[in-house]
Amino acid sequence: MFFRISISLLLLILVPLSPALAHEKKLAEWTFMVFMNGDNNLEEFAMNDFEEMAKVGSTDDVNVVVQIDRTDAYDSSYGDWTGTLRFRVAKDMTPTPDEAVQNLGEVNMGDGAALRAFVEWARAAYPAKRYALVIWNHGQGWKFRLATNISAVRKAERDALATFVAKREKAVAAVDAKKRSLPVFASNQIVPGSLRSVSDDDSSNDTLYNRELEESLRPILVDQPLDLIGYDACLMAMIETVYSVRELAKVMVASEELEPGAGWNYELVVDKLVRSPGMDARKLGQSIVEAYEKNYGPSGVNDETTTLSAIDLAQAPRLAVYTSALADKLAAFVAANAGQLQNIRGFYEIAYGYIQGYELEYSVDLDLLAEKLIAQSNDQNVIRAAQDLRAAIREAVVANYAGQLARKERGSRGIAIYFPPTGYYFWTVDPDYRGYLESNRSYPVEFVQHHLWDNFLVSSYFHDAPGP
To answer: Fewest beta carbons within 10 Å, which of 192, 258, 263, 264?
Structure first.
C-alpha cells in the first residue's frame, strides 16, 4: 500500500495536470465565455477588451475563457498574429500565441458550428455551476446586412436604392469603427439573405445569423441552458432576439441602440463577478448593466446615447403573446383610422441606429410605443392591449440603463421591435424586408413565424407594396 501511494505521489509531482483536470478539483461558480470576433474593423477593440479582462483575470471561482479571431488589417499589436486562439485569461496575461490554451488556426467565427464548438469545449474544460456566453462583434438589429447589390434589385427600386447606398456608404465611412454597427461594403457586393445576425468574419466573408446561432446551440443546451447570454454588439435588445434565445439561457443582456466601439468595460464586469462569484444570472445581468452605466454614464465618459438592458428570458413567451395581441388590435385600428399610425409611431426622433444619412431607423422602443398608443389612439381595445404589454415588459426587464438622450428621445426602456416609419421604408428603402415576411425560408425569424407583428406591418403597409 505504501509503495502504491509513493508511486502515485511521484507521478503527481512529475506529471503536470492538464488545464481541464486542474480545474476539476474545485467546481467553479462561473465560467464566463467570450466569443470574440475581431476578424474585422473592431480588431483593436478586441485587444483592448482582452487587456481589460486580464486586469482581473480568472480565479478558482471564476473562469474567464475567450476565443479570439484576428485579421491582419486593422491592428498590429502583440506581434500582429492572425488566426484564432483560445485563452483562460489570467491576471496580467497578454493575448499572444504563447499564452494561449489552444491555437486553432483560422476559424470562421461567422459559422454557428464554430460557436457551438467553443461552448462545448469551454464547458468541458472549465466546468462550473453557472455559465455565461458573450457574443462580441458587430450587430445589425433584426436584419442581416443592408443589401447593396443594386443590379439585383427590381427595376422600380433601383433609383431610390442607388441614392440610399451612396448616402449610407458615406455615413458608414465617417462612422468607421466608432460604433459597433454596419461595416462598409462595396456598392456591387452581393450580400445574400434578409435576416438578423451578429459576428461578421471578414476573412471568411460570413456572419452568424440569429436563427443559425439558435439552431447550433439548442442541441447542446436543451438539458442545461446557459445562465446568461450577452451581446456586446449593436441593436440586439429587440423582442425578435429575446424570442430567438428564450430556450438557450435564463437572462439576456444587450443594447437597443448602437454601441460605442469600446463596448463593455470587462474590467468592471469581471471584477464584480470575481468579488461576488455566488451571484445568479439575474444578479450578473444587473451587474453588467450597472458596469455599463458606470462606464458610459455621467460618472464615466458620459455618452448620453448609450443603452443596455438585462431581460428575463422566461418572460419571452408571455411578452410575445401580448405583442401579438396588440398587433391584432392595431390592425383593426389602422384600418379604421388611416394615417394615424405614422403620427403615433413618429419618424427619426424615436428610432434606433440613426446617424445622419445612415438610414437604419427601423427599430423603436416597445414600451414607448405602447405608451404613445395609450395616450393617442383613443381606441379602448388598443389601450387595453398596450397596457397589458407594458405590464409584461416591466416583468421581463431585469435591469435597464439609458443615457439622458437615449431615454428622452427614444424611451429606451429595455426592449425594441422592428417598426419602419412608413410603408415606403418597409417595402422599398429597406432591401431586407423579405426577412420579415412569413414566406421567407432562409434562416427564418421565429418571432415572425409564430406571432402577429409581421401580419400587422404587412396589412398596414400593403397599399405601399411595389408591384411585381
So the answer is: 192
How far is it, in rounded angstroms, from Cα 298 to Cα 365?
23
**Grid cell locating 44:** 483593436
- Location of C-alpha cell 468574419: 201
Q: What is the DSSP string of 95-117?
A: -SGGG-SEEEES--TTSHHHHHH
Can you read off the three cell numbers belonging to residue 413? Answer: 426602456
The C-alpha cell at 106 is 483560422
Alpha helices per DSSP H over 337-450: 340-345, 366-376, 380-396, 404-410, 423-424, 446-450
Q: Per-residue pLDDT tens for 282-299?
A: 999 999 999 999 999 998
Three-point CA angle 280, 283, 288, nearest 5°: 125
In percent, the amount of the chain with pLDDT more than 70 equals 76
pLDDT tens across 103-123, in order?
A: 999 988 888 899 999 999 999
Q: Which residues of 396-432 are buried (b: 16+ CB within 10 A; e: fewer)?
A: bbbbbbbbeebbebbbbbbbbbbbbbbbebbbbbbbb
Q: How far is CA 162 from the centre of its chain?
A: 29
Residues 79-108 as b/e (b if ≥16 CB within 10 A, e otherwise) read: eebebbbbbbbeeebebeeeebbeebeebb
| C-alpha dist (Å) from residue 441 to 57, 170, 331, 391, 449 | 43, 32, 25, 33, 10
Weakest mean pLDDT among 357-366, 407-416, 451-460: 357-366
Domain ranges of the chain: 28-314+398-420, 316-397+421-464
pLDDT tens, position by position, 314-335:
999 999 999 999 999 999 998 8
What is the rounded distance in angstroms from the CA atom of residue 36 to the CA atom of residue 46? 7
Task: Note the Cα 424 to chain centre separation in Å.
Answer: 27
